[in-house]
Model the fold of this input.
Amino acid sequence: MAGARAAPGESGALPDWFVRKKNRPNLIVNRWVPIALVGAPVLVLFGIVVYPTVWMFYHAFQNTNMMRLFRGNWSYVGWENFHTVLTSERFWDSVQHLVQYLVFGAGLQVLLATVLALTLYEVVKRDWLRVLFLIILVLPMMLPPSIVGVLWKFLLTPSNGAINAALLHFGLIGEHIEWFNAGVSLWSIIIADIWNWTALPLLIIYSGRVSLPPAVYEAARVDGASGWLVLRRITLPMLKEVIAIAFIIRFMDAFKFVDLVYVMTSGGPAQTSELPTYIAFQRGIREFEVSEAAAYAIIIFAFSAILIIAFLRYLKKVLKAQGIA
Done:
C-alpha cells in the first residue's frame, strides 16, 4: 500500500530530509558541543575557585610561609594559626573598625541611596532628566577603587586639599582637619567609599520603586492619603525586601574591602584604619605568612556567613509575619 509506514529497520523509516541532516556534520547535533560548553566553564571555575579554596583550607592548618612554600617543607600545626588570629588584639581592633564601616559606611550608603532613588522618582517628572541624573550619580561607581583612593587622598590633603578649602570657605571649620591622623583616617576611607559605591544600592532601590504597582498609589490618592503617609505606609514597606538586598550586597563587599585602605592609608596610622581583610592581605602578600593569612580568610568567611544567614532568616521571618513569604 502506498501510504503504509516503513518498518523501523528500513531506510524509509525516517524522512529523507532528516536522514540528510543527521548524517551531515552539524555543530547542533554533535554531542561534544554541549560537553565543551558546560565543561569549559566548570574547569575554569574549579581552577580559580575550588582549587584555591581547598588549598587555603589545607595551608590554614600548616606552618606555611613563602620560603617553606617554595621548598615544600611545611608541617601540620593544627589550630595554632586560628588561635593566633583570635587572640590577636590587632584582629579584634580591625573587627571594631569593620563594625564602624558597616554602620556608617554601608548603612549610610543604603540610606542615602533610598533618599536619592525616591527623590528621583517622585520629584523629577521628566524621564530624560531622570536618566541624566542617574548617569551622573552612577559615574563614580564606574571608576576603579584604586583611582578613587588616589583622587580622595588628594581631595582630603590637610594643607591644600579641596575638602578642607571648601569647609574653611563656608565657615564650617575653623582650622584644617587632619584627615589621615589616628581616629580620623577610617572616616576618610568611609567618605570615599560612600562616594564610590552609593550608586549600586541606588540603582537597586530605584528599580524596585519603578516596579511597584501604580494601582496602589492611585487608590491612596483617591482616599486622600498625604505624600508622607504614602511613603511611610506604602512605599517603604513594599521596598523593604529590595532595601535589604541592597544592604546585603554592600555588607558582603565590606568583607573584601582592601583597595581603598591600601591606597589611602595603608591601614595607618598605627593600624587605626585596618580591616580584617586588609590584615589578611598584609600577612599573606606583604609579610609572606601564608598559613596565618589563610586562617584570617577562613575566619572572615565564617563570620560573614553567620551574619548573612542570621540576617536572611530575620528578613524571612519579618516577611512571613507580613504574609509576603
